[in-house]
């Protein structure tokens, strides 16, 4: 690509168009090292390129969005909760870019069925799964903040057991993909297929290849490729997170209605304490 650090030239934009065209033809575009820096120009390059790519990739097949990102972003990963829909994106990645690692946030509070499912999918799809754990064990967290924090302050619990571990894991990457879809919650309704997200002092590329997918799209893909189903789905769990914060839902309810039911909370990242607060909670002795 052309253009020096911190500059975004018309040639750069044309090169992004070319990289998207290549992905749409079924190839992986060449890696661009400027995505690796991620912050030497306050993310100007990454932000501009993500915006450009989003415009080109909106409405395009999810496999091609994965291919574009896995090709052009030097260190790329996919995050997965190994929940009810996770097999779709993981299967897609295993077909298009099998070298891409999968980050699994093991909160220590998952259902045993989720851990079994994580092992099964890793084995059957042949993907490499990196288990990322919180800084505090459940016992350390209970000693520091009291027992059953999830029953009293789920935002802080999620910050300690999900947000901070993800932030730590992403220091090794320049971009990542998630299975977020727009129809899942009002907060996700405007999810772009490609965006730039700030993590600490770096700007990373975040990709949501399934952003525009409907529930039927997901079911159709699962059936087409006969993907293994999370065992709890048969018991009415349609969105699966940590055991203490997840309940089954009826067929008429929203899939995420069974998450944090006592709190009106729908996202792990809502109303979180800032990073400094997370650092204090995980590093202060006692
Ligand atoms: S989902 Fe519940 S148990 Fe899991 S990290 Fe969040 S509050 Fe804690």
Structure in words:
It is built from eleven helices and six strands. It has 286 residues and is α/β, with parallel strands linked by helices. It has a six-stranded mixed beta sheet with strand order 3-2-1-4-6-5, with helices on both faces. Helix 1 packs across helix 3 (44-57) and helix 9 packs across helix 11. Residues 107, 109, 150, 154, 157-158, 161-162, 241-242, 244-245, 268 line the site of iron/sulfur cluster (SF4). Iron/sulfur cluster (SF4) binds next to helix 9.
Keywords:
alpha/beta, single chain, 41% helix, six-stranded mixed beta sheet, binds iron/sulfur cluster
Poorly predicted parts: 270-276
| Amino-to-carboxy terminus distance | 51 Å
The small molecules bound here are: iron/sulfur cluster
Mean pLDDT comes to 88
Major sheet attributes: 6 strands, mixed
- Strands ordered across the widest β-sheet: 3-2-1-4-6-5
Indicate the structural class: alpha/beta
């Amino acid at each position: 690509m052309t253009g020096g650090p911190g500059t975004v030239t018309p040639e750069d934009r044309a090169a992004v168009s070319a990289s998207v065209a290549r992905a749409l033809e079924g190839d992986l575009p060449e890696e661009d090292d400027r995505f690796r820096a991620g912050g030497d120009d306050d993310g100007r390059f990454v932000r501009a390129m993500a915006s450009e790519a989003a415009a080109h990739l909106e409405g395009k097949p999810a496999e091609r969005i994965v291919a574009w990102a896995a090709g052009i972003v030097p260190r790329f990963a996919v995050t997965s909760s190994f929940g009810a829909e996770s097999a779709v994106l993981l299967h897609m990645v295993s077909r298009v870019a099998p070298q891409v690692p999968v980050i699994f946030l093991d909160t220590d509070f998952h259902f045993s069925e989720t851990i079994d499912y994580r092992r099964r999918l890793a084995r059957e799809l042949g993907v490499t799964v990196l288990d990322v754990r919180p800084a505090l064990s459940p016992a350390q967290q209970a000693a520091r903040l009291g027992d059953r924090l999830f029953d009293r302050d789920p935002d802080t619990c999620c910050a300690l057991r999900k947000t901070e571990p993800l932030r730590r894991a992403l220091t090794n990457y320049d971009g990542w993909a998630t299975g977020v879809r727009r129809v899942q919650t009002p907060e996700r309704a405007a999810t772009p297929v490609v965006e730039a997200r700030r993590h600490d002092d770096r700007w990373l590329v975040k990709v949501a290849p399934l952003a525009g997918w409907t529930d039927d799209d997901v079911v159709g893909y699962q059936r087409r490729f006969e993907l293994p189903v999370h065992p709890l789905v048969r018991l009415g769990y349609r969105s699966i997170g940590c055991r203490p914060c997840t309940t089954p839902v009826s067929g008429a309810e929203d899939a995420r209605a069974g998450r944090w039911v006592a709190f009106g909370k729908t996202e792990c990242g809502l109303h979180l304490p800032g990073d400094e607060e997370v650092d204090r909670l995980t590093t202060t002795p006692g």
